[in-house]
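Explain the record.
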Amino acid sequence: MAREGLRRLWAVLRERVGDARLRRLWAVLRGREGDVFQRRRLLALLGGAFVLLAGGAVAVVVATSDGGDPFPTIEAGSRFGGGEQESAQGEEDADEEDARPDLSDEQIRRLAAGLFLVGFSGQDPTAPFFERLQAREWGAVLIDETNYVDEQQVTTLIQQVRDVARLREGRRPLVIVPQEGGDQSAFGDLPPGGQASLGRESLEAVRRGARSAARALARLGVDAVLAPDASVAVTGG
């Protein structure tokens, strides 16, 4: 019965769809074309058609009129009761596909790039990284001690990050530095001081140091820092 049902299904598909569309359906089924939602929908449709044919029902495969959708719409009438029946699974798959945002591949790549914090090698605007930055809207750029020479140099470097984003008319990445303090900072000659020394000072002195560090980093164009961390083993902290 199952073998006969498969033969009948194949015959109906060849008659109603045509060899070219069958090849496309086969490619989607094997994962060579389309996406997971299309493949899931195709499997649901073929499964429903097979069950109907194997059980003695009549299945009619109706190709879409626009020629753009490789998947046929299956309408079925049972000998036990007339009328059209729609597969609940087919409805769920259609709703899932309709709910997907209509995004191009380029839009998806841009959104994905926005999730990344990236670092780079180089200390001036001629670094190869800036060519890549023109093509990708990274979410954030990390400037660390390997990129730093002095305040004037790093200000120019950070400004280049902003200029590239402005030229491509895209989202400007955040500029982030690891500035924990002292010799654990990307910019070693800028505040705050090391955690060990700060731990011996008063609370007000720590506040003043934090404000001083914030002003100094803001002048350079820094948006955020990766510090302080919870170094609970530091003496005095």
